[in-house]
Amino acid sequence: DAMRCIAVRGVWKYNRISPNERKKFYEDVSISHGEGGMFEINLDQRKLKTPGGKLFTAPNEALAVAVANEWDTQKDTLKFYSMHMTTLCNTALDNPTFRSKDQIITAALKYLETDTICYRVEEPPSLVELQNNEWDPVLKWIEEGYNVVIGSSTNILGPEIPQATMNTFRQHLGSYNFWSLTGLEYVITQLKSVVLAFALIDKHITVEQAVLLSRLEEEFQIGHWGNVEWAHDVDLYELRARTAAGALFVHFSSESSTVKRKLMQD
To answer: The whole model's pTM is what?
Structure first.
């Protein structure tokens, strides 16, 4: 096989181990009802399986349609590394690092201690102003909305997060199911920010805004010093794609109603 699966931070990753990619081996992709209300993906007459060898099943039609669409839009070769919804489902199904909900929550909350928007520079003044103008409104939103104190700091150690804040967020994350937590942790790791991830999932900001806010200092430096344009565009596109997929995964895995294929295509 041209790809090798490894588990990193509890998420399946696909690494390229040869210049070749796996040739597409199917023509038709379809969805069928499985046991217990689950949905299965069929590649011609074959049932899709996870990297761990389990039967691939999605808990609702919305996720099944999203995954089927990823397989259906592949061309002559299968680019597994671009199939984010499939990867997230595989991670939730296989749980390759055998983590519990509590362990996922603890891992996610560690990012609050080093949250992107909590670290502030002391100079140059133009970047200080940019961080204050762009990050403070989101920080104020989450503090008021969740009744917590987070704060920001120019100290390399970052702000000291009160235990009450950690407890509030831990309780909130505990309300998510295992699948949704898998997606939420993924979004947090992409943005390197609990604050931005919550703002995105709560639809306070868009994917584009979340990504730009997470890259604020980098974009500032690029504006001053320049960068390889195509490389920057690729990085930005890939981060948007991963973040959008994670956010959709959270919403879809929390969704109990069915979604018609036509709605997804539209």
So the answer is: 0.85
